[in-house]
TrEMBL record:
Residues 30-49 bind DNA. The keyword Translocase does not apply. This is TetR family transcriptional regulator. InterPro entries: Homeodomain-like_sf (IPR009057), HTH-type_TetR-like_transc_reg (IPR050109), HTH_TetR (IPR001647). Keywords: DNA-binding, Transcription, Transcription regulation. Pfam families: TetR_N. GO terms for molecular function: DNA-binding transcription factor activity; transcription cis-regulatory region binding. Residues 7-67 form the HTH tetR-type domain. PANTHER family: HTH-TYPE TRANSCRIPTIONAL REGULATOR BETI (PTHR30055:SF234), HTH-TYPE TRANSCRIPTIONAL REGULATOR RUTR (PTHR30055).
């Protein structure tokens, strides 16, 4: 097996930590388990990170925002507003996009569970609180960017800055995730999606 550079080792550990957190929770993401998932000896961990806390910071700084951006962009191709977009077409499109998100959630629920678990864990550990806050700020920016992309596709204008609406998208995806993971109740998830689409539509005008 070729020798890994420090950067390659860091990258492998970050990705493995994210996956282990998805499967076992933050508390269950021990350095031993993470190294085993990455296929490297435990002794090599400190060549890449000075501590488990430093690794968790890297996961929140890099892996989570990139993964959420990938998930949100994977539903963007569903943006079909018809030849003459209107509010109803927009709401229908948003409902489709949130359902596409739910499909991704059902296929791999651990990904979103890991995001929420990391946020809660960071809040409860002072040394990680600022990193957790920055992680969510990055997620808000990812959501705001997606909303600007929707505006261009549909020829609409958001009546509030997308920087203010981005947190609403992340709050919605977190709520959908928690309800699905806790209850598996598709009917409640459908109702929540419809309500979020209705709310978002109140912030739209067409050019």
């Amino acid at each position: 097996m070729p020798r890994m550079s420090v950067e390659q080792r860091r990258s492998a550990l970050i990705e493995s930590a994210y996956r282990v957190i998805a499967d076992h929770g933050v508390e269950g993401a021990t350095t031993r388990r993470i190294c085993a998932h990455a296929g490297m000896p435990l002794a090599s961990f400190h060549y890449a990170f000075e501590s488990r806390t430093a690794l968790l910071c890297a996961v929140m700084d890099h892996a989570v925002p990139v993964d959420i951006e990938r998930m949100l962009h994977s539903v963007m191709p569903a943006a079909d507003f018809g030849p003459e977009p209107d509010i109803d077409a927009l709401k229908q499109n948003m409902v489709r996009q949130f359902h596409a998100f739910v499909d991704l959630l059902k296929a791999d629920p651990g990904r979103m569970q890991a995001t929420i678990a990391l946020g809660i864990y960071a809040h409860n550990h002072p040394e990680l609180q600022q990193v957790g806050k920055v992680m969510y700020e990055q997620l808000y920016r990812v959501a705001a960017s997606g909303m600007r992309e929707i505006a261009e596709l549909a020829g609409l204008t958001w009546t509030r800055p997308t920087e203010e609406l981005g947190p609403l998208i992340i709050a919605a995806t977190n709520s959908i995730t928690l309800i699905y993971l806790s209850t598996g109740d598709d009917k409640v998830v459908d109702s929540l999606i419809a309500a979020v689409a209705e709310q978002l539509a109140t912030y739209v005008t067409f050019e």
